[in-house]
């Protein structure tokens, strides 16, 4: 079946450190993945996406890595800031290609 | 630019009462529209999606229904709410396309509490 999960429910880092949030997916045929950031009381905010024909994609302070061999996705945040504190979700496109399947989320806490 | 609006932001309803949550999108035409529910501390579960006016697909059997009376309007309804309907309801849109290899953009949700 389809499922998306994250390795750790929480991650605590110091301001200025690099953060790595991991995600495993089960559908080897998935060809589209997204990372979202959700702050308390708000809807998820799009961060970055990646298609299966890529291994890496970079944005502003964020990098997404896709390892299709082990069905693993990660989000790297450089120079983490207190404003990065939030819940981060990975999502994959479902088999029908109609909607996204979300994992349970990792809570990132950044201390000064 | 595109924007998405959901209302109300919070809602407290008694068991057995009806429900109507509204979502509208501006700045785009013929978007794909979605309703999700998020239980406390958990990920998002897709409830309904729509690729056009009057076209609704349901992902899970439940006490809720959805309608799309206009291109950029998506409504989530129930005739009789259950306690288990409590949660955070999120509407989202994406660019139209057969295979939705496009990011979905979310509203700020409605916090629904059933008493």
Properties at a glance:
heterodimer; A: about 110 residues; mainly beta; 6-stranded mixed beta sheet; 5-stranded antiparallel beta sheet; globular; B: about 120 residues; 7-stranded mixed beta sheet; 4-stranded antiparallel beta sheet; about 55% strand
- Specify the number of helices of chain B: 0
Number of strands of chain B: 11
Helix/strand order of chain A? EEEEEEEEEEE
The count of strands of chain A amounts to: 11
The number of helical segments of chain A is 0
What best-fitting shape of chain A do the alpha-carbon axes yield? globular
Structural class of chain A: mainly beta
Biggest interface: A-B, 25 and 26 residues
Strand content of chain B: over 45%
Tell me the Rg of chain A in angstroms. 13 Å
Ends apart, CA distance between termini of chain B: 38 Å
Mean pLDDT of chain A: 90
Helix content of chain A: under 10%
**What structural class is derived from the secondary structure elements of chain B?**
mainly beta
Question: Roughly what percent helix of chain B?
Answer: under 10%
């Amino acid at each position: 079946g389809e499922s998306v999960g994250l390795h750790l429910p929480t991650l605590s880092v110091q301001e200025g450190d690099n953060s790595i949030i991991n995600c495993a997916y089960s559908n080897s045929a998935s060809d589209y993945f997204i990372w979202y950031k959700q702050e308390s009381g708000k809807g998820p905010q799009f961060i970055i996406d990646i298609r299966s024909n890529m291994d890496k994609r970079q944005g502003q302070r964020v990098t997404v890595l896709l390892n299709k061999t082990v069905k693993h996705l990660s989000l790297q945040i450089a120079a983490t800031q207190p404003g990065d504190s939030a819940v981060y979700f990975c999502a994959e496109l479902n088999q029908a290609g109609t909607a996204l399947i979300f994992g349970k989320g990792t809570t990132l806490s950044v201390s000064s | 630019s595109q924007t998405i609006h959901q209302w109300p932001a919070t809602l407290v309803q008694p068991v057995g009462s009806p429900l109507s949550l509204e979502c509208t999108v501006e700045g785009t035409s013929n978007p794909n529209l979605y309703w999700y529910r998020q239980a406390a501390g958990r990920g998002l579960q897709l409830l309904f999606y729509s690729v056009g006016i009057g076209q609704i697909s349901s992902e899970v059997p439940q006490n809720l229904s959805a309608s799309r009376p206009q291109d950029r309007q998506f409504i989530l309804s129930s005739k009789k709410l259950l306690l288990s309907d409590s949660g955070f309801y999120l509407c989202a849109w994406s660019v139209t396309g057969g295979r939705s290899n496009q990011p979905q953009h979310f509203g700020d949700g409605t916090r629904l509490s059933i008493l």
